[in-house]
Amino acid sequence: MADDLRERNKKATEKQKRNSEKKEKSAEISEKINSADPVELRKQLSNKNEEYVFKLNKRLTDDDFTEDEAKESIDNLLPEIVANQIKGIPANQLYGPVSKKAGDIAHPVKPKKKTPFWALSIDTSLLFFALFSVLYGVVGLTSTKQTTQNQTGIITLVLLAAMWGVLLTWFNIQMKKPKGERPGLLVTIGYLGAGLVIMFVFLGIMQFVPRSINPGLNGIVYLVLAVVAYGGRFLYRKYMHITTRGFI
């Protein structure tokens, strides 16, 4: 049994060594290809890839590229073409038909800019501010006692909307991740639970803040603020180029 174990360990070590050597060799080849002169790379092209490059060059010049522009565009592709050629992947398989690759070069698709977390949080916070303002406005107008003392203070409303904005934005981002990258269900519930506890503690603390600092507003004023916040959110999303929905 001991001999079998030693033999298995020996084979595993040899396999690991071979894999390491392959990686080193692959890295060396990749470095040589990337540092090679385009003229040398063109000499290494297979007949199939050489034909692809020739047709691509012709297609680009037909699409109003100058010879120098077409050459420069193709030169930038050569390291990738040669590297994949070594793996047995021809250019037409790598890039698709010549017409498609020429179109990609002539009309490159700009990578979609990712909206930062803080910008998405502000977007969601504005939405919640508008929703809460409508709620408090309706409560204020339908309350039997028409007094601002019964209304939630404006500072409370702003901070509450901000908290909901951050919490729901985080949750929305997590749910949009690939299944394997999402946090576990218990972790997600834990974060949401902690966020809700913090909000309730915050609301309790705000009860002790003097009305002179955190005044309640008239119901109509809250409704006006709701309209302003929602309109401001529309302009904000347009300015920040936010196209995603605030919720899943």
Automatic annotation (TrEMBL):
Identification of the protein by name: Membrane-bound protein
Record region (Disordered): 1-33
Transmembrane segments: 117-139, 151-173, 185-209, 215-236
InterPro entries referenced in this protein's UniProt entry, alphabetically: DUF1129 (IPR009214)
Keywords: Membrane, Transmembrane, Transmembrane helix
Keyword Plastid in record: no
Annotated Basic and acidic residues bias: 1-31
Top-level taxon of the source organism: Bacteria
Species for this entry: Companilactobacillus ginsenosidimutans
Pfam families assigned to the protein according to its UniProt record, in alphabetical order: DUF1129
Record bears the keyword Membrane: yes
